[in-house]
From TrEMBL:
InterPro entries: ATP-NAD_kinase_N (IPR017438), Diacylglycerol_kinase_cat_dom (IPR001206), Lipid_Phosphate_FormReg (IPR050187), NAD/diacylglycerol_kinase_sf (IPR016064), YegS/DAGK_C (IPR045540)
Superkingdom in the source lineage: Eukaryota
Flavoprotein listed as a keyword: no
PROSITE patterns: DAGK
GO biological process: sphingosine biosynthetic process
Annotated transmembrane regions: none
Alphabetized GO MF terms: ATP binding; lipid kinase activity
Annotated stretches, region: Disordered: 259-280
Pfam families per the UniProt record, alphabetical: DAGK_cat, YegS_C
Name of protein: ATP-NAD kinase-like domain-containing protein
Any GO CC annotation of this UniProt entry: cytoplasm
Length: 421
């Protein structure tokens, strides 16, 4: 078992040595002390009980083999007890999560983001939804889209299945907001993104190019910019923050706080909005307009979500925070092709955030009304009908395992303006 030396708080190392002439009891006591520091000393229970859900068909279809070769040996060495299920069809992970016993220390998804979406929706329909959402969820990235893993582990480790396995063994629970999306009276849990316009076409219009892997998204982006189709929607929201510099300062403050937290004393998770056994009720109705703002502009895309990375090529929501109870909304003005191209140039590091043709809003809720019969909508990467919908955030409802207690992405400050002579 080996893994490149990590820069994070966790790395996998095989240590061996000879204890010459040591008494067996003393050795046992030494081992026990070491394990105590490694686990209880870091606030982690030893030998976690894990529900493992593997999608053998995700990404390049290597999930089952990767689990067996790399992930399972790490879990076994850490004396975790495993209850492993391979999904046999779309929707299987939803059913597993909806009916599962709630006495696991974590649920592990050996998959991409699609299975995470299914599991969280399964929890929402569990007979004890709030308790189900308390079970920490941890991804092992074997899908095409592995944004959640990138957000938890960072760019360097986000696609490293050993790092993800270590997070399962030793990560600490981190509360995270999820969203309710309502459309035609139907409520869906979204944990990652809702996309309309160019960014939805990326997911929907490039399905036949799956063989390209991640390059498919860059191809779709360039194609979309060339076509320069407008996104026929009206965007309205219940805004909390509109100032990009203040959002950046708040991100820095929250990261500083998370960095100074003593991992040995995990903070007690915030009380969810709803202590009872039902999902939190919706706060906003589709007819509410008190305190709502309509953004008067024409867009190329409107993109909203949680978590900085939406893929390796795009840090869409650089100032997103796991449990601020807010949704980050990004809307690209249809000002000019060059503006769109310029802003996408800085997408991997989130630099487009500072571009003035990008609206960036933190809100409690938002609403999209189509202004034309045809268009695209993708929710957590899945195709949805292009019809009116509304989204609101539920603060800290779900739980993830995290090595850092915050998102791992690094986002740079506003670039200094070049002096003009
Ligand atoms: N055994 C199966 N056969 C076919 N599809 C499945 C199976 N198990 C799960 N699925 C479906 O596979 C989809 C993709 O899952 P996953 O999260 O692993 O990867 P992804 O990155 O989201 O997508 P993909 O890798 O397929 O592009 C899910 O929507 C799920 O419904």
């Amino acid at each position: 078992m080996s893994r490149k030396k990590g820069t994070g708080p966790m790395s996998l190392t095989n240590l061996s040595g000879v204890a010459e002439g040591a008494d067996g009891d003393i050795l046992d006591a030494w081992i026990e002390t070491l394990l105590h520091f490694a686990y209880e000393g870091a606030g982690v229970k030893r030998g976690r009980r894990l529900k493992v859900v593997i999608n053998p068909h995700g990404g390049t279809k290597k999930g089952a083999a990767v689990f067996k070769k790399t992930v399972e040996p790490i879990f076994r060495s850490a004396q975790c007890s495993l209850d492993v299920i391979h999904t046999t069809r779309g929707g299987h992970a939803y059913d597993i999560a909806r009916t599962m016993a709630l006495d696991y220390d974590a649920i592990v998804a050996v998959s991409g983001d699609g299975l995470i979406h299914e599991i969280l929706n399964g929890f929402a329909h569990h007979e004890q939804p709030v308790k189900a959402f308390r079970i920490p969820l941890a991804p092992v990235p074997t899908g095409t889209g592995n944004a959640l893993s990138l957000n938890l582990l960072g760019m360097e480790d986000g696609f490293d299945v050993s790092a993800a396995a270590l997070n399962v063994v030793k990560g600490l629970p981190m509360n995270v907001d999820v969203f309710s999306l309502t459309q035609n009276g139907k409520r869906t849990i979204s944990f990652m993104t809702q996309a309309t316009g160019l960014l939805a076409d990326l997911d929907i219009g490039t399905e036949h190019l799956r063989w390209m892997g991640e390059a498919r998204f860059m191809y779709g982006l360039l194609r979309g910019v060339l076509q320069f189709k407008k996104c026929p929607v009206q965007l309205s929201y219940k805004a909390v923050e509109l100032d990009k510099d203040r959002m950046f300062d708040n991100l820095q403050a929250q990261r500083f706080k998370a960095g100074n937290k003593n991992r040995a004393v995990p903070s007690s998770p915030p009380i969810p909005e709803n202590e009872g056994n039902a999902l939190p009720p919706l706060k906003y109705r589709p007819t509410d307009d008190d305190g709502w703002t309509i953004l008067d502009d024409t867009f190329v895309y409107v993109f909203a979500g949680k978590g900085p990375y939406v893929g390796r090529d795009m840090m869409a929501f650089p100032v997103s925070l796991p449990d601020d109870g807010l949704i980050d909304i990004l809307a690209q003005s249809a000002s000019s092709r060059s503006d769109v191209l310029l802003s996408l140039g800085g997408a991997p590091k989130g630099e487009f955030y500072w571009n003035s043709s990008i609206h960036y809003i933190k809100a409690n809720a938002y609403r999209i009304k189509p202004l034309a019969p045809k268009g695209s909508l993708a929710v957590d990467g899945e195709i949805f009908p292009f019809e009116e919908f509304q989204v609101e955030a539920h603060q800290g409802l779900a739980t993830l395992l995290s090595p850092y207690g915050r998102y791992a992405a690094e986002f740079a400050p506003r670039p200094k303006r070049k002096a003009t002579s």
